[in-house]
Write a structure and sequence with these properties.
Structural class: mainly alpha
Largest sheet: none
Shape: globular
Number of helices: 13
Radius of gyration: 19 Å
Distance between the termini: 34 Å
Helix content: over 70%
Order of helices and strands: HHHHHHHHHHHHH
Number of domains: 1
Length: about 300
C-alpha cells in the first residue's frame, strides 16, 4: 500500500494514467465499432455513440449544475473545433471499418507532427532545423505505412490521414478556448458533433438495421468506453505537463496492434513497423522541443 501511495505521489503520474486509460478506451471503442460494422452501417454506429455520449454528459452536467452553453461556444475557434471533431470522427471510423485498425491507429499518431506543421503555416511559428527534420521524418514514416503506388496501398488509409488533418485543426484551435470551459461541456459537444456526423452520413451508408440481441452488450460497452475515453483524455491534457504526458498517446498504437492482430487477424509488415517507429520518435521529439521550459 505504501508503494502505491509513493507511485501515486510522483509528479504527473495521475495524468499519465489518465492518458493510458484514454488510449485503451479509444482502442476498445474502435474495435467494437469495427465489429458492429458487420451488421449495421457506419452512420448508425456514429449516431449510437454520439447519442450515448451526449445523453450521458447532459445528465452529468444537469446534476453537477455545469453550463453547457458558454459565450466561447459562439466564437470562431469553437465552431472550427466542432466541425473538425465532426469530420475527423466520421473519417476515422470509415478507415477502421473498411481498412486496418492497426494501420489507421498508426497514422493517427502523426497528430503532433501535423500540429507542429500547422503552427508553422498558420501561426507563423518559427522552428529550428531539428524540428523540420523531425516533421519530415514523421511524414516519411506515413509514406512507409501507406505505401502509395504499390500493390500494398490501402486506399482507406487516406481516410485516416484526412482524419488526422482535422484532429490537428481541432488541437490548433483548442488553445484559443479558455480553460474555464468545463471538460463536461467539451465532451458533450464532442459527442454531439459525432451524432451530427452520423446523421449527415445516413444517405451515404444506407438504411439502419435492427440490432440483434447478442450485440446489445457491445453497444453497452460503447456506452462505457467512449465517454470514458474522451473524459480521461481531457483530464490528462489539461492537467499534466505536455512534454511528459503527450508521449503516452503512442500507447494507443500498441493497444491497436495487439487488438488488430489478435481479434481481426491483421498483419503488419516490417516496412510499416519502421514507419511507426519513425512517427513515434519524431512525434515525441517534437512534443519535447515545443514544451515550455521551467525556469
Amino acid at each position: 500500500m505504501k508503494l502505491i501511495n509513493k507511485i501515486w505521489k510522483i509528479k504527473n503520474i495521475e495524468f499519465i494514467l489518465f492518458m493510458l486509460v484514454s488510449m485503451a478506451c479509444f482502442t476498445v471503442r474502435d474495435a467494437i465499432s469495427k465489429q458492429l460494422s458487420e451488421i449495421m452501417p457506419i452512420s448508425q454506429i456514429l449516431i449510437i455513440i454520439g447519442l450515448i455520449g451526449t445523453t450521458l454528459f447532459f445528465i452529468i452536467a444537469l446534476f453537477s449544475k455545469q453550463f453547457l452553453f458558454y459565450p466561447e461556444l459562439k466564437s470562431l475557434p469553437f465552431v472550427i473545433r466542432f466541425f473538425c471533431e465532426l469530420f475527423s470522427s466520421v473519417l476515422f471510423v470509415i478507415s477502421i471499418v473498411f481498412g486496418s485498425l492497426a494501420i489507421s491507429s498508426a497514422i493517427m499518431q502523426t497528430i503532433p507532427i501535423f500540429v507542429a506543421l500547422g503552427a508553422i503555416l498558420f501561426f507563423d511559428q518559427k522552428v529550428r532545423l531539428k524540428s523540420w527534420l523531425m516533421i519530415l521524418s514523421g511524414l516519411a514514416g506515413v509514406v512507409l505505412i501507406i505505401k502509395p503506388g504499390t500493390e500494398h496501398f490501402d486506399k482507406f488509409s487516406i481516410f485516416a490521414l484526412l482524419s488526422v488533418l482535422f484532429l490537428a485543426g481541432k488541437d490548433l484551435t483548442t488553445h484559443h478556448i479558455r480553460e474555464t470551459v468545463s471538460p463536461i461541456t467539451l465532451c458533450f459537444w464532442g459527442f454531439f458533433a459525432l451524432m451530427i456526423g452520423g446523421i449527415l452520413c445516413m444517405p451515404i451508408f444506407g438504411n439502419f438495421q435492427a440490432v440483434p440481441l447478442n450485440q446489445i452488450p457491445f453497444i453497452a460497452l460503447l456506452g462505457v468506453f467512449s465517454p470514458l475515453a474522451y473524459f480521461t483524455l481531457i483530464l490528462a491534457t489539461r492537467g499534466g505537463e505536455i512534454a511528459i504526458i503527450s508521449p503516452f498517446r503512442y500507447s494507443r498504437l500498441l493497444f491497436a496492434l495487439v487488438v488488430g492482430i489478435i481479434f481481426f487477424h491483421e498483419e503488419i509488415d516490417a516496412l510499416s513497423m519502421v514507419g511507426c517507429l519513425m512517427i513515434i520518435i519524431s512525434g515525441i521529439a517534437l512534443i519535447v522541443s515545443r514544451a515550455p521550459v521551467k525556469k
